[in-house]
Amino acid sequence: MTEKNIESLLHEDRSFEPPVEFASAARLGNREDYDAIRSKAAADPEAFWASIAEELHWFRKWDQVLDWSNPPFAKWFVGAKTNISHNCLDRNLDRGLGDKTAILWEGEPGDRREISYSELHASVCEFAGALLAKGIKAGDRIALYMPMVPELAIAMLACARIGATHSIVFGGFSADSLRDRINDAEAAMVITADGGWRRGKVLALKDIVDDAVVQCPSVKNVIVLKRCENEVAWDEERDTWWHDALVGVAPLQAAAELDAEHPLFILYTSGTTGKPKGVVHSTGGYMTQAYITTRWIFDLKDDDIYWCTADIGWVTGHSYIVYGPLMNGASVVMYEGAPDTPGKDRFWDIVERYGVTVLYTAPTAIRTFMKWGDELPASHDLSSLRLLGTVGEPINPEAWMWYRRVIGGDRCPIVDTWWQTETGAIMISPVPGAVTTKPGSATLPFPGIDAEVVDSDGEPVAANQGGLLVIRKPWPGMLRTIYGDPERFKEQYWARIPGMYFAGDGARRDEDGYFWIMGRIDDVMNVSGHRLGTMEVESALVGHEAVTEAAVVGRPDDVKGEAVAAFVTLGPGYEGDDELAAALRAHVGKEIGAFAKPDDIRFTDALPKTRSGKIMRRLLRDIAAGRDEVGDTTTLEDYSVLASLREDD
Ligand code: WTA
Q: How many angstroms does the Cα of residue 526 sit away from the middle of ligand 1?
């Protein structure tokens, strides 16, 4: 990007109106009504969000909708008492949905479970009782490191029921990453499983937890779900089987009446420093936004079978597998394993067998399916689908069109939803019955969300000019802080453009006001929809004895979106050969997790730096991408470094 704005090159002329049949049955089925809601919400966002909150259950109503007297620290629904577990469960039982299926679960080996709302409620009450029996109190942090099994949702809802703050760590993270997250949050307990199934193999989660918690003084208890029956080591003092933890405990029937600002969860995410940040979400505001975005954007009706293919270890799973859909009383499909096990048509097999109506997945998955060919989806009956969604990274128009044609049979609208771990819920997305879509555009901000594209002075840029994507007013699902580091919260998100939230994306708006997200402009990569900081990978690399300096950049990849490219200088006596490259990749796998392993490692004598000593990442990005025209090099300190790096091409 240039200082002032970003060049935007993508042009896309196709557009798709909401299909008449879809719109006529939709919750929000025409543009005029939707625009009326949007302008009313823009004029008085607090009144809008309060009217949505009214649809949910509160033990005590708020005295004030928003307290923004100490920005950027927002308080929503001040003085109110509520419980999101009550809203996901008890409220649905009260509405007569007890017998409705809440979770349609399928394990990778093909085992299945169907759990009704009353069964889910009973399991959550029981497990909440077990947590209390272990001495857990409201405000305690609990780390969850689990496979995609119903007990993960049960554990989340049980934490929420008593007011324990959950911190879910994706099962692909290594023991070191898990340890750091547990220690940062000072978690009192870890909930895990013996293992989980992934591509026909057992991922031995308990072993990884054992490695992590020896260095976690705060952890008093580890609860272990029996899933794969693999052998595990056991610490009698510390470890309890999930089923044993339930014995003789009194189920917690009444959910705790929690302050609306009570911290519901912490979720660690990558930023521009080496250390992941614990994004803190609270209860009442998050609940309100997760509820209504699910309802309107996925147009959920009573008979929908809804499937979000994310892992609950990421924010998408929090908001759109568990909290949002369950608050709406939906029937949610949950799948444990990989999309290519036993065959590459596993997803389409699931869609067909369960009659999935709404499917929400990621561009990286869509591009993978494109590569696998049209025959696999074509061999299944996908006619139950009526709406498709995507999230996690910009979707290229080609993938969008393929998704529409091959998966959606040219009949299903696509909702391209832009949001972040920090925003808690969807911020920019079409509402499918009302908004005409364009391939590659997330279209319009949700009602009550004040998104804009601005220059570095915070001034809106003209149509089709690239700029920084910002949010100008607080929104209910916004992160409240970074755990234990309020200064970093201010610095990271609110300092670049004073008074506005900026979390790293570039964008443009077209002449219709549609948003086109151009991707991260900071040092955060998006690898297969997983956020990964270049600094995180760099600090892992320099932690290896052979490495003196490392610079990591993303390079375009057809399937993963971005691949990880590392430039490495070595200490004396080390040889930059294939063996060392393999060792470095393994080292990053151990430090962070397998998904962070660099795709390319290039050994070099020196890294290109500016006169002030900053690594020239733009240049490295060009080299990694194999681009011939290398960008502006006038600030390059040592041209010979560039020359020698390019010789390696
Ligand atoms: C990117 C995932 C383009 C973006 C919910 C953002 C997107 C980051 C989209 C957040 C989209 C997410 N179009 N880019 N529809 N959705 N992104 O925190 O760069 O894992 O900043 O949250 O993903 O990733 P995170």
A: 8
